[in-house]
Amino acid sequence: MKAEFTDGKITIGPEGKALYTNSGYGRPAGKRLSLSGEEALYLLGRDKIELDGYDFDTLASELSADPKFMRRFLLYRDIRERGYVIQTGPHDFRVFRRGEKPGTGRSQFMIRVLAERDLVGFNEVLDDIASAKNMRKQFLVGVVDDEDEITYYEVKSNEITEGVAENSPAEVTGMLYGRSVVIKTPPESSLEKAWFGTRLDKERLLLSPPEVLYLLEREILKIRDTDISSFSEIAAEEDHEIESKYVVYKDLRDKKQIARTAYKFGHHFRVYSGEKKHSELLVHAFPSEEFMPMSVISRSVRLAHSVRKKMLFASVERNNIEYIEFARIKM
Q1: Single residue among 241, 274, 295 that ends a domain in this structure
Q2: With 70 as the cut, is the pLDDT of residue 276 above it?
Q3: What residues have CB less than 8 Å from 178, skipping those under 6 apart?
Q4: What is the arithmetic mean of pLDDT over 112-140?
Q5: pLDDT value at position 107?
Q6: Do residues 49 and 12 touch, judged by C-beta distance below 8 A?
Q7: What are 161-203's pLDDT values in tens digits?
Q8: 305 in a structural domain
Q9: Inter-axis angle of helices 228-238 and 209-217, to 10 degrees?
Q10: Considering all CA atoms of the chain, what is the largest pairwise distance in Å, rounded to the nearest integer?
Q11: Residue 173 belongs to a domain
């Protein structure tokens, strides 16, 4: 089947209609069929079309003037060979339900293609999630690594549900030891039952900085000559992330979720609903304008999966928080 490459567009004459109706390739353009670069290269490599002056290598070389083309092609080929119909779409691609195609079925996924070293901007991710949701599709990220293997992640907003944790312990007075706050309280006090603090000894409970800020703000904790503003300055001297961490900690606690440090997992918080003995979530907080390497996200998701937890990234813009879940899936 003959194709033409003119003015940057690859098209097939009326005979190309069969490619569209039978297998979902291309888009009708009048009497012709218009192919994306990924579709054309795929079909050329399988001897389904002929293109004067081009073989697979020369076409791939020309189309790769766009540095992102080859990663998109590799994902396109992978999806096609898994038995799905895939077309370019409002993200990078849209993928139809297995066994369905344009004109006779609905697309199920919207896919954004990334490389393993790409920096991920979560404001852009949120825009993609919202766009896919408005179209009633699942949003996926397909990551092409340096060995051309592809990993798929479902990415979605996650609403933190209300837990059952005790949130209003009795008022206490603390002592400031440098940058640490210690409460003198017997075992099984209301503070400890509400999962605040860590035992220093039988008489003393040591509070983490987010716990101190939360209890100060709610006027449950009093410290001589120290209020939430002054302690924020003290905490920030050691932890430049404390501002965004505290916004997330406060939100989780207000929702009766128990947030404890997740340092051993490489993240800010492990989260318990109060109903289970084991944490269900790992949460990492960061300002919304920051970027994160895709490789870091990949490690985080794999680790969370290995310990049977969901991985959430909390994007903080002032006091507004968007929880974004990345979960690895099989296509």
Answers
A1: 241
A2: no
A3: none
A4: 95
A5: 93
A6: yes
A7: 888 888 789 999 999 998 899 999 988 889 988 999 999 999 9
A8: no
A9: 170
A10: 85
A11: yes
Neighbours of 202 (CB within 10 A): 7
**What is the domain-level CATH number for residue 26?**
3.40.1170.20
List, edge to edge, every strand of the sheet that includes 267-272: 86-88, 93-96, 107-115, 138-144, 150-157, 320-329, 310-317, 281-287, 267-272, 258-262
Distance CA 221, CA 47 (A): 74
Spatial CB neighbours of 41, under 8 Å, sequence gap ≥ 6: 56, 59, 60, 63, 73
Amino acid type, 64? S
Q: Which residues are catalytic?
A: 272, 278, 309
| Amino acid present at 230 | S
In a domain? residue 322: no
The boundaries of the domain holding residue 3 are 1-65
Instruction: Identify the pLDDT of residue 243.
Output: 95
pLDDT at 167: 79
How does DSSP assign 173-210, residue by residue?
EEEEETTEEEEE--TT-HHHHTT-SEESSSSEEEEPHH
Question: Of 38-52, 225-239, 267-281, where does mean pLDDT reach its minimum?
Answer: 267-281
How far apart are alpha carbons 157 and 298 in whole angstroms?
17
Q: What is the pTM of this model?
A: 0.90
Q: Which of 249, 173, 267 is nearest to 208 (CA)?
A: 249
Distance, CA of 298 to chain centre: 10
Distance from first CA to last CA of the chain, Å, rounded?
A: 31
CB-based burial label for 140 (10 Å; 0-12, 13-18, 19+): buried
Distance between CA atoms of 322 and 155, rounded to whole angstroms? 12
* DSSP, residue by residue, 31-99: TEEEE-HHHHHHHHHTTS-EETTB-HHHHHHHHTTSTTHHHHHHHHHHHHHTT--EEE-SSSEEEEPTT
- The domain total for the chain is 2
Count of CB atoms within 10 A of residue 310's CB?
A: 18
pLDDT value for 277: 78
Cα dihedral 301, 303, 309, 312 sign: negative
In-domain check, residue 117: no
Mean pLDDT of the chain: 94
Mark which of 23, 44, 65 sits at the end of a domain: 65
Instruction: Quickly list H helices, 239-322.
Output: 242-254, 294-306
